[in-house]
Each structure stands twice: as C-alpha cells, then as structure tokens.
Amino acid sequence: MCKKEKGLDGFCFQLDLLTLKSHNLGRDAIERIFFGEVDTKGAIARDLLLQSGPQSLTGEQRCDFARLLLSLDVRRPIIVEKLRNEGTETNKASFDSDPEILSVMLEAGIDEPPSSYYERHKGISFKDMGLSSIQRLVDNPEVGGRLVNALWYIKHLGEHEGSLVLSDRPLIRIRGYDHPGAVWALPLTPKAAFIAVNHPENLRRMQRVTPQRFAKQTNYSSTIQAERFVFSVDSLHERWLGKHLAPKNKNVD
Fold it and tell me: Which of 95, 191, 208, 223 is the most exposed place for a label (fewest CB within 10 A)?
C-alpha cells in the first residue's frame, strides 16, 4: 500500500522524481515550468475532446494533447531513472574523451577525469544533464508529428455499457508509432477514452466495436501494464482485477 503519511497525495507520486540538483529557476524547474505548461495546455485540450470531439481542436491544441500523451510515458519513474543513469554515463564519457578538454586539463596539470573535475569544481551535474533530456523526448518531432497527424477518436460508453479503469501507467500503446497498426489509447473518464490510430481501417474497427467489448479489452490492457496501482469507481471490477493483479502484488483502489 502507499505510505499513509502523504494521504491521497501519495498515490502515483514519487518524491523528488524530477528534482534537479541545481537550476537557476529552481530545482523543481522541469516539473513546475516545463511539465506545468504541458499539463495545463493538455488539460484544456482534453476538456475540448470530451465536450466536442477531436474536430473541435485547433492544430496547436492537437499538439498540446500529443505532448501530454508523450509526457505520460516519459515521466514514469523507471524512464526517469534510466535517463538519469544512462544520460550521466553518456555525458561523462563525452567529457572524458573530448580532445580539447583533455588538452586544457593536461596543460593545467590536472590529473583526474574531466567529468570528475568539472562536477566538483564547476557545479556541473551530469545527472541533471541526463534528466534534462526528458524535455526532448516530449517534444520529439518525429513521434509527436506522427501522433498529431493520426486519426483521433473518442469512444464513449453508455450508462449500462461498462466503465473504464485507470492504471498508474495510463497511456496504452500498441505497436510502434509509425506502424500502420499502431494504436494509442487513454481513458479520460470512466465512460470515455481517447484513441489515435494510423490506419483508417483501424479507426472503423474502433468505431464498430461494441462499448462493452472495448471496455473489457481496454481495461485488460490497462491492468497488465500497471506498475503499482489500478483505480476503479465501479465495484464490479473488484473480482477480475484482484485475479489479474494478485500475482504481481499490485494494488486496487
């Protein structure tokens, strides 16, 4: 279970996940400024999608929502940690093999790896450099461009047509972004989900599938990719959720 000291705010929240060692705009600059804008603009686009459908969005608003979707994936703790660690090693290796830097260090009589010297004396944090690359992933023009230009659709469920669960890894992705059969799906409410596909036949398939079957398939996808938590407002989900989550020691709320 989640730590009780933080109450409800503790769910799906990892303290200092995106905190930098230092930054002239504050250690929380990435989360507060960059992702703050992504979340705010993405939420406006989400509300329009729910109210009036994809046709109501401007080109800029489609970009805003696409950035939000990409950010959901890259902000996963496992991805953030990977960026920190792999980015640190990559940036250090780049410093330590740079001929110009090595030459300057040699002339100055400094007998230690450049990365170590710069980190200790120049205030450079290689972990911060690695984490900062997260912004480029959110604004990836190749992936984002393909998503923005995909076919968008909102699948609605009626009063008696089931409901959707939501996991702590909410974005569902099937196949690569450039694959003709690619699908992006995100539950927006217990009764509505966003869908993006590359091929018109996939769109027609999504439109034809019954809401009940769509809910069942989407809920299964959400559950099997959950990292710790799955949320539901419908007690009817308890039995099957428990069966799928128990072996992985995950939690239902």
Answer: 208
